[in-house]
Write a structure and sequence with these properties.
This is Cytochrome b5. With 84 residues, the chain is an alpha+beta fold. It has one domain: Cytochrome b5-like heme/steroid binding domain (Flavocytochrome B2, Chain A, domain 1, Roll), CATH 3.10.120. Helices cover 35% and strands 19% of the residues. The termini are far apart. Bound molecules: protoporphyrin IX containing FE.
């Protein structure tokens, strides 16, 4: 399933109860089922729930992490919002 989501919709899923959506490079990942297994800890992931965490992601992980885990948790992409 691949959805098109606005940043506002992603922000509505900021907590584990709401799915813990996180944006990395324009893709949206649903991490509620992964948060307790995250080798970097649950706390750091919860802190970026609902937000774009591209900078933080690439600070701590290599491309291999995204290759292995990305497809398991990706639910969609961020919709380009019309500039009015
Ligand atoms: C799709 C989202 C994410 C996945 C699948 C993921 C996965 C992983 C994995 C597999 C590791 C183990 C280290 C490794 O194999 O290189 C790790 C470590 C870590 N992650 Fe994540 N992570 C995600 C998002 C994040 C985010 C958004 C942050 C920061 C806000 C973060 C912070 C860390 C930290 C601090 C470590 C420990 C690094 C170390 O021990 O040197 N992760 N993560």
């Amino acid at each position: 399933m691949s959805e098109s989501l606005t940043t506002k919709q992603v922000a509505e899923h900021a907590s584990v109860e709401n799915g813990l959506y996180i944006i990395v490079d324009g893709s949206v990942y649903k991490l509620d089922t992964f948060v307790d297994e995250h080798p970097g800890g649950a706390k750091i992931l919860k802190r970026v729930g609902g937000k774009d965490a591209s900078k933080q992601f690439w600070k701590y992980h290599s491309e291999n992490v995204m290759k292995k885990w990305g497809p398991k948790f990706k639910i969609g992409e961020v919709k380009e919002e019309a500039k009015l």
